Structures are given as structure tokens and as C-alpha cells.
Amino acid sequence: MKKIIITLTGLLVLSCQSKKEEPAAKPETINETTVSLTEAQLKNADLALGQLEKKSLSAVLKVNGQIDVPPQNLVSISMPLGGYLKSTQLLPGMHINKGQIIATMEDQQYVQLQQDYLTTKSRLYFAEKEYDRQKELNQNQASSDKVYQMADADYKTLRITLNALGEKLKLINVNPNTLSEKNISKSVNVYAPITGFVSKVNVNIGKYVNPADVLFELINPTDIHLNLKVFEKDITKLAIGQKLVAYTNNQPENKHQCEIILISKDLSIDEHSAEVHCHFEDYDKTLLPGMYMNAEIEIKSHNVLTLPEAAVVTFEGKEYIFTALDKTNFKITEVTTGTRENGFIEIVNGENFNGKSIVTQGAYTLLMKLKNKSDE
Prior knowledge:
Elements: H1 2-20, E1 34-36, H2 39-45, E2 48-50, E3 53-68, E4 74-77, E5 83-87, E6 95-96, E7 101-106, H3 108-139, H4 145-171, E8 187-191, E9 196-201, E10 208-209, E11 216-219, E12 225-231, H5 232-235, E13 243-247, E14 256-263, E15 273-280, E16 292-308, E17 313-315, E18 318-324, E19 329-334, E20 337-341, E21 344-347, E22 358-361, H6 363-375
Helix pairs in contact: 3-4
């Protein structure tokens, strides 16, 4: 029995040892930093050497935003004196012209206001005549100063009252100069102050509206602009007058040329972004306020250190270049890259390689040889 136990224990120990000896899988890495080529390999590799060059590259900043209209092109229509909506034909999306009748309102206070105006106008006529008479009598010492002063005060008071009533009539679109006892009306018209289209209708026929209530909202889309959100780190790259292209998600192939007209100086608390307002160079009727758009802004980077894109190789998510130690030996070094344009790539940490000979052609061949060397 003891022999059997010893045998089983030995088997367990051997099994554990065999498990420990199994090598764990390791991520693929470059263990060596230099690679050497023979004369024959060097000839077949067709390598080319060069140095960092200063170039002006363009980067594209991609942002998004939505179409907006300036305050002067967005109009809320209300009735300053209130009243009942008698009629309207407006529907959201309907096109309207400036001066067009968009609604008719009615209320008894409109009648009262017109009555007060005409009554005051009539009294003013009499007060003016009385003022002139008392003035003449006072100059001839035929009446007292008190009577003349009372006539003057009545005349001026009625003039003030008439002007005030006339301004109230203008608020409800009634012309006081053409008003007479023959054309007093309980109804007044509401006119469109701009040419555009209806965005909102907030009332229905027969509803009473207060002076603060908004009946309709009108938009003039001819001066729409694009309101972009740009993060704090990119604001300094933009300038007024800078060009960009914008497009919608539904029609990315339809590019709209824009120009930056205003850059906000205030950053939002939540996103640390600023609003950048852009003007469309050509008005497109298919673009509507509130529509979301994407934009691409070309940004110039002046005099950055660059290499041909073929000089930079990628391995395990990192980017490298090869520098020549001598004619047959080359060293791999990690680099940080930036903007790419026209076959050149910005080397952000390029100051570390100034004056060094860099492999600008055949770098991938060296990477494969170095990787195979590390795998041996």
C-alpha cells in the first residue's frame, strides 16, 4: 500500500513540474534595436538615406455644428394689445412675403381706442381755437393770465393725448392719419415684417391672446449661418476669414463653401468649447435652420520637420524610423508623428534626429529583418 502512494505522489510532482515548464505566450515585441546587413543584402534592399526637411503641411480639423439664423432674421409675432384671433391661413413651412396679411385680430378695445382717438382729435380742434382766442385776448389785456394759461394747458394736454393714442393705433397696424368716423373697425390686420417662411404657429382661430403671447414665429433663411463647436485646444488655429467646407450626414458629397465670420471669446463650462460662426458663400434652399452639419477646416502648420511617409514604419501600434550608424548598421527609434500631406509626415520629436542620416526608402525591409532576428 505504501508503494502505491509513493508512486502516485511522484506522478503528481512530475505533472506539476511539466506544467511549470510550459512557456507563457508573450506579446510580439522588438528585442533588438540595431540591424546589420551584408553587402549583398544592402544591395538587394535598395535603401535610400535622407535627412529631416522643414515643410509647411496642411492639417484638416473636423468639427460639427448646426445651421442657425441671426436674431434679426428670426421674428416672433405678437399682438401688443391682445385680442381674439379671427382668421389666419398660416401653416408651419409656408412661405410668406414682407407686408403680407398673416392674421386678423378683433377686440372691443380696438373700437374703444379708435373712438378715443377721434374724440380727442375733435376736442383738440376746439382747444386749439380756444387757445388762439385766449392768446389774442390776453395780448390785448382783455382776459386774465389765468384763463390764458388754462387754455394753453388744455391744448397741450390734448395734443399729448392725441399723439399717445396715435402711437397705440400704430401698434395694432391702424393708420391714425386715415382714420375717420366712417372706417372704425373692430378688426385689425397683422402683417409679415419679413420675407421668409413660418416656423411655428402657436394659436388657433377664436383663441384670446395676451400681449406677451407669441402667435407665430417667422424665419428669413437668406442669411443663415453655420454655428460650429470648436474645442479649446483648436481655437487658436482658427482666424476670421478662414475658409472651410460643410456637409450634411445625408449628403456628404454635397460640399458647401463657408467662411469664418466670428469666433466666440467665451468657452462653455461643460465642454470647454467655443462657438464659431460661419457664413455660407452660396445660399442653398435645402439647408434649414436647426439642421446638423459636419465641417472640415484646413489648417496650415508652418515649417515643421518632416520625412517621406515611406521612412516611418508601424509595429505593434507604435511608429519607428531607422537611422544609419554606418554603411551597414541601422538603429530603430520610436517617433511621434503629426500631420500628413502629399506623401510627407510631420515628426513631432524631430529635433532628436537633426543631422542624422535616416532611411527614407526600404525601412520596411529593415523592420522585417529586425523582427525575424528577434524571433530567433
